[in-house]
Amino acid sequence: MPHSSSPSDSVFPKPDYGKTPTRKKEMPEGLWTKCPGCSAYAFNKELESRQMVCKECGHHFNITAHQRLSHLLDEGSWQEFDAGVASVDVLKFTGATSYSEQLKKYQKKTGLKEGVVCGLGKIEQYAVSVAVMEFNFLGGSMGSVIGEKITRAIERATEHRVPVLVFSASGGARMHEGMFSLMQMAKTSGALSRHAAAKLPFISILTHPTMGGVTASFATLGDLIVAEPKAMVGFAGARVLKETTRQDLPKGFQTAEFLLDRGLVDRIIARPDMRSELGKILGYFSNKPSLAKTSSRNGREATAHQNGHGAAHRNGHASETV
Fold first, then answer.
1. Whole-angstrom distance, CA of residue 61 vs CA of residue 45
2. Mean pLDDT, the chain, as a whole number?
């Protein structure tokens, strides 16, 4: 009986032309970013043009303090103060690494001496004192230097008789500095009390996240409290609160939207609208319009005056002729 051969027995097996090898497509690095809110991929340049806000779901990505200032202030109006003030490891704190090493690491990473940038500038031609916290510097945790710089920004606003704006982004007090960190809550609040006594406005802007001692002090003392969409705002973490109260907590109780419904937050403003909306708010607080609006109005008034003067002159001349 003849032996039946199979393809596997053949010396030259017949190739399978039905299947073609496919090469896995790789996403080029540095061109696209995946949104954690909706999983959509965004072209980085387009994302940057939208101030790092996803066009599909509105998710607000983290941005640096200087990026925020560039989107917020009038061009050429920024004057930074206290840029060289840096923290000192007074307590000689040691953990996995020493506090001194941590400071050097984040100074190199961010290019900043500390986790807040302060100075004077203009928004829609309204002069303001601004402090913007940098979350990328040790989680924006508030130590003695951050408290000092924010206090100086408030006192500078009081001295110049201008509004003060503080953009908060912090995990809370800096544990590396112990009680020195906690003292900043009282110091910043005291400066705000003197600013309020001078009848000058304070606008607090809460960004993701604003937690701990920052929430428990200056962040919630604003004459107007504004937040970015879906920003996490609270004191302690949800797990700690649940274990402490032994109660089931409402869903989303630490979001800006939840706090807006209950009156702690006055307005939620998306980042691309922040500059224009703050300009309007500053106009409401101000006794005088912005320089841009004043010059526009003065131009219209000058034109009207010239037209009126010309008309009166022509009428007078016509009367003389008659």
1. 14
2. 87
